[in-house]
Automatic annotation (TrEMBL):
NCBIfam families: tim. It is found in: Cytoplasm. Homodimer. CDD domains: TIM. It comes from the Bacteria. Pathway: Carbohydrate degradation; glycolysis; D-glyceraldehyde 3-phosphate from glycerone phosphate: step 1/1; Carbohydrate biosynthesis; gluconeogenesis. Belongs to the triosephosphate isomerase family. Involved in the gluconeogenesis. Catalyzes stereospecifically the conversion of dihydroxyacetone phosphate (DHAP) to D-glyceraldehyde-3-phosphate (G3P). It catalyses: D-glyceraldehyde 3-phosphate = dihydroxyacetone phosphate. This is Triosephosphate isomerase. Signal peptide: none annotated. It comes from Paenibacillus endophyticus.
Length: 251
């Protein structure tokens, strides 16, 4: 039995206006709050001030979906860790496959963003995972190893223990095709071993690793039943209040 606190994080992606976000929050308040489970909403930048305000006095944490690696500068359209910390944001998703694919986010950039998060007192949720062709070529574990090692480069053991890793096979994101819980456990157990290799077993045992990819209220418990799976990063099923509440209850 590990001491790791299960963590359910909703990734809203590019959905919800401020009024929609506030209305969602009023519906989950007091419900998506379960003892022993951490509940996090990762929302669009524009909704973060209102959500941080709404979350005051609750146990629900608010996260961003991206951060720039510099604190400030001539980076038109970007948002820094200084700005997110100032808002009261706690978590930030880094290296989501959509950012890697559509915004050219490399392993090196992911690593810089992890450092920028810690520098500004934010906790990173680092996404790793293989493409379908990589899975079919038997490269799943190699891909996850390379991405994990790159993300943790130069990160101290104390910081590493606070990182949340989200293992998200890309072919399972938003497709309705989820990895079996046994397959997810196999890869996540392997990723924990990679962290142990980088640091030590105690650090690896502290790191929380989520599964992500078409997690729904009806399959979340199955993933949570696996030894090394500490939670879920959820896109589509986190957008409706009732579904999000069920995910937190199911964890
Ligand atoms: C995600 O956005 O990280 C994700 C896993 O999406 P979905 O749950 O919709 O597959």
């Amino acid at each position: 039995m590990s001491n790791r606190k299960p963590i359910i994080a909703g990734n809203w992606k590019m959905f919800k206006t401020v009024s929609e976000a506030v209305s969602f929050f009023s519906e989950i308040k007091g419900k998506a709050e379960v003892d022993g489970v951490e509940s996090v909403i990762c929302a669009p930048f524009t909704t973060l001030p209102a959500l941080v305000e709404a979350a005051k006095g609750t146990s629900i944490a608010i996260g961003a979906q991206n951060v720039h690696f510099e604190d400030n500068g001539a980076f038109t359209g970007e948002i820094s860790g200084v700005m997110l910390k100032d808002l009261g944001v706690k978590y930030v998703i880094i290296g989501h496959s959509e950012r890697r694919a559509y915004f050219a986010e490399s392993d090196e950039i992911v690593n810089k963003k992890v450092h920028a998060s810690f520098k500004n007192g934010l906790l990173p949720i680092v996404c790793v995972g293989e493409k379908l062709e990589e899975r079919e070529a038997g490269q799943t574990k190699d891909v996850c190893k390379v991405q994990t090692e790159a993300a943790f480069q130069g990160v101290s053991a104390a910081q590493a223990a606070e990182v949340v890793i989200a293992y998200e096979p890309i072919w399972a994101i938003g497709t309705g095709k989820s990895s079996t819980s046994e397959d997810a456990q196999d890869v996540i157990g392997y990723i924990r071993g990679v962290v142990a290799g980088l640091y030590d077993q105690a650090t690896a045992d502290a790191v929380r690793i989520q599964y992500g990819g078409s997690v729904k209220p009806n399959n979340v418990a199955e993933y949570m039943g696996q030894t090394d799976i500490d939670g879920a990063l959820v896109g589509g099923a986190s957008l409706e209040p009732a579904s999000y509440i069920a995910l937190v209850e199911g964890a």
